[in-house]
Write a structure and sequence with these properties.
The protein is mainly α and 197 residues long. Helices cover 68% and strands 0% of the residues.
Length: 197
Amino acid sequence: MARAGLTADRVTLAAAELADEVGLEHVTMSAVARRLGVKDASLYAHVRGLEDLRGRIALLAADEKTLRIAEAIAGRAGKDALVAYANAWREYARDHPGRYAATQIPIQIDPELAAKAPGPRRAVELTYGMLRAYALQEPDLTDAVRLMRSTLHGFTSLEAAGGFAHQRPAEDSWVRCLDALHSLLERWPARDEGDPA
């Protein structure tokens, strides 16, 4: 029988908080059970196992991150939207490192549960919508989305790992990277005749 007050959402939140504190790779069913003051077996009434739990953390994080980005870019366009989007992404990654890590891994989760989670779908809509202000058409639009995601994820991941040991402040480099990304998006290179469409 499930412990009173214990729900899948409560288990997921406890696991997400733990991931932020100790790292996603250190989240185990036992560690979450200890955090909640229950036996390991009690968790299985609410989640199917560790992979399911990690998937739930990823969906929670996607919802939170997307909401933060949506609020940041509301009413903005062009470079203002790009900078607000990037800053919200970076702040989320800093504030919730374990949850952020969960958004970057392939997840195995009940397709029904995934279909009900608005975060991943909304994230795609927000990103494509923001980049349409740069007058990009497919397939360039998808290429630009991939470039932007790679840039933001790469910078935030390297920063979190202490990868910027140079004396120049990372903040200064971040601002210049966003300037360069904006400039590239405004002057997106034309495809050659032979390039795949």
